[in-house]
Amino acid sequence: MEHGRSKKIYEEAKKYIPGGVNSPVRAFKSVGLDPVFIESGKGSRVLDADGNSYIDFVCSWGPLILGHSPEYIYDGIEEIIRKGTSFGLPTETEVKMARLICEALPGMDMVRMVNSGTEATMSALRLARAYTGRDKIIKFEGCYHGHCDSLLVKAGSGALTLGVPTTPGVPQDVIKDTIVCRYNDTSSVEAAFSENAGGIAAVIVEPVAGNMGVVPPREGFLESLREITKRHGAILIFDEVITGFRLSYGSAQGLFKVEPDITCLGKIIGGGLPVGAYGGKREIMSMVSPLGSVYQAGTLSGNPLAMHMGMKTLEYLRDNPQVYGSIEDNAVRLEAGLNAIIDELSIDACVTRAKGMVCLFLGKGPMESHDDVIRCDTARYASYFREMLERGVIIPPAQFEGWFLSYAHTREDIEYAIKASRESLEIAFADIIKYRP
Ligand SMILES: *Cc1c(COP(=O)(O)O)cnc(C)c1O
């Protein structure tokens, strides 16, 4: 496969953009390759700058649940653009969008649009702190909520109970109120609440963890978070930036029947444009400015073009519920195909799945927390990725990311990805397989 033009663009990119990319994972660093630069996308496929075509399982990391550039969403878009792309004054589309979201999610009475998932979680925390009059928050190791300072924290090592920043530039002072618990471990949450009685404003969680690969919640985990937060007068925040409108039209809260107090959204609700949102119970959302005193604003928030694309996407999902069944069928097929390969090659690997969310971990399961997933073999994953790319399939360029399936992926795409995985995993594990008696 020829990558000459991608390489040339990358050289130029590195001169002007840190690392040549505008979000780190795109640099393909953890799979030891130079990035491919994308020219266009259609359906389940993307075309790179050298004209190579790939089946794409990144799908913009979640927004493209209907695949790349679907005609039925793009219909009428030129007209919308010509009407003007931003006013800084309210438009009716924002109202339609807000109503769509509130009608879909059980825990959502009112919603405020922002421009990214990061903004959504950052604003949700401010609101939860204002509402409870408390400062401390609980997050889970391995859950990602965007790059807001107070959430870039991991658990301290050993006996250290204080969290540590995951990046330079975050002062210890900013994260001193962030407590890190273990995903799927209710007792770690109970312990945090008893150690910080009356001080915890909120628990923020990905209802299905999608940023350490895919780690579904254990039966009863979300229910116990609901019960514990209620008992302690704390706010439960579901970060549904990935799961929102992906697990089901009612999102994770509709699927698991657990209602959070505040929900964060992003990705799918922008239909491929930069959007985020946070919302929840009326009593809480009534504190947001200008109705209430908690300040939060945005020059491009509720942008007419982004609202239009998001609205078209949500309307399509609402009116075509078969989308979810179809994606799940393909996810089940992919899961079964990969499991058959793992059995046949007898390698340490496992597949996790929640509805249409799938991940192949190159490590022994079960995968229930960050401690489990970090035992995976990232070097073998890098080799697996490179072989897949060579065969025209883009899987996530990092072990700790889920595969994103879309409605545009066909059964043939899935069969091909399984076949390519069979060959690629055999190469990635060649040393083990070769020396087996
Ligand atoms: C992607 C993501 C975010 C951050 O959203 P951005 O739009 O990238 O800022 C937050 N939470 C979760 C669960 C995400 O997957």
Automatic annotation (TrEMBL):
GO terms for molecular function: glutamate-1-semialdehyde 2,1-aminomutase activity; pyridoxal phosphate binding; transaminase activity. Its cofactor is pyridoxal 5'-phosphate. Its EC number is 5.4.3.8. The keyword Isomerase applies. Pathway: Porphyrin-containing compound metabolism; protoporphyrin-IX biosynthesis; 5-aminolevulinate from L-glutamyl-tRNA(Glu): step 2/2. It catalyses: (S)-4-amino-5-oxopentanoate = 5-aminolevulinate. GO terms for biological process: protoporphyrinogen IX biosynthetic process. InterPro entries: 4pyrrol_synth_GluAld_NH2Trfase (IPR004639), Aminotrans_3 (IPR005814), Aminotrans_3_PPA_site (IPR049704), PyrdxlP-dep_Trfase (IPR015424), PyrdxlP-dep_Trfase_major (IPR015421), PyrdxlP-dep_Trfase_small (IPR015422). Homodimer. NCBIfam families: hemL, PRK00062.1. This is Glutamate-1-semialdehyde 2,1-aminomutase.
